[in-house]
């Protein structure tokens, strides 16, 4: 059984005080659910959020990291730095990073390798643009993104990776892929994993859907056969919404 994973992606939102207040509001409510609950926050908040979540099952993740261990990379943060403060997860290759910050399939692959080598859980994002969807290229595009993200990753490590399928046209737009559509693409991504690693490994990999998930649609999405969680931007900013997501 794949444990569902509901992850908030706060993007560039919240001060330390706001973030800590959020964790304090949700941390006891999350206990006892069968869901992995994760908040991915801006770097400046991470040490305080880890501290606030200590002793609870709420996990804290970053939204990016560099693939090198150290060096002259102004503005970057390494896997060791994240581990040093108790971060457990890291989003890799979010479409906003691909669009605005030059992330490529190659850098996603390097970051996934580094995260796994260091013991961080990578959440590797993939997904098509509206133009690609309308041209019927959704699956071929996701296949390339997944194959290139997993290049050189051993079968023993593949199940440690979480994949987030996030159609770009559905992110922050209020437009959601229908749950069947999302499930269809996610089932296809699992087939791609079968091609890379075989059935047993592919059955272990958790694949989230992301794109305007909110309390009103989370249950329908989570009821689909191949969808193992959600990566949520806007609707993860309020504690009451996040708790509804976790309690889908
Ligand atoms: C995201 O940030 O990954 C995302 C899916 O955002 P939203 O839920 O706001 O569409």
UniProtKB/TrEMBL annotation:
UniProt-annotated binding residues for substrate: 9-11, 172, 212, 233-234
Presence of the UniProt keyword Cytoplasm in the record: yes
Catalytic reaction(s) noted: D-glyceraldehyde 3-phosphate = dihydroxyacetone phosphate
Pathway: Carbohydrate degradation; glycolysis; D-glyceraldehyde 3-phosphate from glycerone phosphate: step 1/1; Carbohydrate biosynthesis; gluconeogenesis
Superkingdom of origin organism: Bacteria
A Pfam family matched in the record: TIM
Enzyme kind, highest EC tier: isomerase
InterPro entries linked: Aldolase_TIM (IPR013785), TIM_sf (IPR035990), TrioseP_Isoase_bac/euk (IPR022896), Triosephosphate_isomerase (IPR000652), Triosephosphate_isomerase_AS (IPR020861)
Keyword Transport: no
Catalytic-site annotation from UniProt: 94 (electrophile), 166 (proton acceptor)
Signal peptide: none
Principal subcellular localization: cytoplasm
EC number(s) stated in the UniProt entry for this protein: 5.3.1.1
Keywords from the named record: Cytoplasm, Gluconeogenesis, Glycolysis, Isomerase
Places the protein is found: Cytoplasm
Molecular functions per Gene Ontology: triose-phosphate isomerase activity
Described function: Involved in the gluconeogenesis. Catalyzes stereospecifically the conversion of dihydroxyacetone phosphate (DHAP) to D-glyceraldehyde-3-phosphate (G3P).
HAMAP family xref list: TIM_B
Family listed: Belongs to the triosephosphate isomerase family.
Record NCBIfam families: tim (TIGR00419)
Subunit architecture: Homodimer.
Name of the protein in question: Triosephosphate isomerase
Organism: Fusibacter bizertensis
GN (gene name): tpiA
């Amino acid at each position: 059984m794949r444990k569902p994973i509901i992850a908030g992606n706060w993007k560039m939102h919240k001060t330390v005080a706001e973030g800590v207040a959020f964790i304090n509001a949700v941390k006891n409510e999350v206990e006892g659910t069968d869901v992995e609950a994760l908040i991915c926050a801006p770097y400046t908040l991470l040490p305080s959020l880890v501290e606030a979540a200590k002793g609870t099952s709420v996990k804290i993740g970053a939204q990016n990291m560099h693939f090198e261990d150290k060096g002259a990379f102004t503005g970057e943060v390494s896997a060791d730095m994240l581990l040093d403060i108790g971060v457990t997860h890291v989003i890799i290759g979010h479409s906003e990073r691909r669009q605005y910050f030059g992330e490529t399939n190659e850098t996603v692959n390097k970051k996934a390798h580094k995260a796994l080598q260091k013991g961080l859980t990578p959440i590797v994002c993939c997904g098509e643009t509206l133009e690609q969807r309308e041209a019927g290229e959704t699956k071929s595009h996701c296949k390339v993104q997944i194959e290139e993200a997993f290049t050189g990753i051993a079968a023993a490590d593949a199940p440690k990776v979480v994949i987030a399928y996030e159609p770009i046209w559905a992110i922050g737009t209020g437009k959601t892929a229908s749950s069947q559509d999302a499930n269809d693409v996610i089932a296809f991504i699992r087939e791609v994993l079968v091609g890379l690693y075989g059935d047993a490994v592919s059955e272990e990999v958790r694949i989230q859907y992301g794109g305007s998930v909110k309390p009103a649609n989370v249950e329908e999405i989570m009821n689909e056969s191949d969808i193992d969680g959600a990566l949520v931007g806007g609707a993860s900013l309020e504690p009451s919404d996040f708790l509804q997501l976790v309690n889908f």
